[in-house]
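User: Sequence recovery, please. Input:
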């Protein structure tokens, strides 16, 4: 289904100009809001909606009234704690200046934490297979001003609009220190409300032999998997499971 871009309920010169830029960047149609509700616009345009507000860009998948938009999510509180104790930082063994590929970017919470840790000399990439979602997150990372201590870390993240396996296949061997994968859970976790609007549009592909094979070729230090504690992917693909008591997800590691 196509996607169109529009403005807030009452457009301003700023939101109209922003919508025009989004239209040009993504090659999608810009349509007038005409004070229509989201539900009415879905019916009229038969399309997903990108809505340019004063402070952020929102994505409304067709038939849903809850928007997807960028915000730091769990990175906000994770980076206020001793960051070296963060489970992902600890399990991955990342050091300042390292490179990191997040194969499943989502809201970029993990990528933000890593970017803060590896610093300005590090490199952080994040894959999102849906161009519109990659665009929303990429714009948010560059524009979000709500947490000043994370601004530079967010702006350093390079969002890649690509399927993770395709991107890995384009990379040179031994070119990334840590490759990380967090496929959408096969068993829904009720707390993951941020992803409710994406149940349809997001790429819900699960781990495959090819994905792991390419990750092994590209990673210099480690491949890290985050999955539901009931997942058999750890054992199926050769990850050493790191059990986290009283949590709904575990980490797994393959050392390269």
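Assistant: Recovered sequence (256 residues):
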């Amino acid at each position: 289904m196509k996607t169109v871009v529009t403005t807030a309920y009452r457009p301003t010169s700023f939101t109209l100009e922003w919508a025009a830029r989004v239209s040009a960047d993504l090659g999608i149609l810009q349509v007038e809001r005409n004070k229509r509700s989201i539900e009415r616009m879905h019916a009229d345009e038969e399309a997903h909606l990108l809505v340019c507000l004063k402070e952020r860009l929102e994505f409304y998948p067709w038939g849903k009234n809850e928007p997807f938009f960028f915000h730091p999510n769990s990175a906000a509180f994770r980076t206020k704690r001793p960051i070296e104790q963060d489970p992902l930082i600890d399990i991955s063994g990342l050091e300042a200046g390292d490179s990191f590929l997040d194969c499943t970017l989502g809201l970029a919470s993990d990528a933000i934490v890593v970017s803060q840790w590896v610093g300005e000399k590090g490199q952080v990439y994040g894959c999102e297979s849906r161009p519109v979602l990659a665009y929303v997150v990429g714009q948010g990372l560059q524009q979000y001003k709500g947490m000043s201590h994370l601004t530079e870390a967010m702006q350093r993240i390079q969002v890649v609009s690509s399927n993770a396996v395709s991107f890995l296949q384009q990379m040179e061997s031994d070119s990334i220190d840590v490759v990380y994968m967090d496929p959408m859970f096969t068993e829904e976790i009720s707390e993951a409300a941020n992803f409710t609007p994406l149940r349809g549009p997001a790429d819900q592909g699960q781990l495959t032999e090819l994905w792991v094979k390419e990750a092994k070729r590209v990673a210099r230090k480690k491949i890290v998997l985050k999955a539901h504690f009931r997942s058999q992917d750890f054992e199926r693909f050769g990850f050493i499971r790191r059990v986290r008591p009283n949590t709904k997800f575990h980490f797994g590691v393959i050392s390269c």
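Residues 185-194, 199-204 have pLDDT under 50 and may be disordered.
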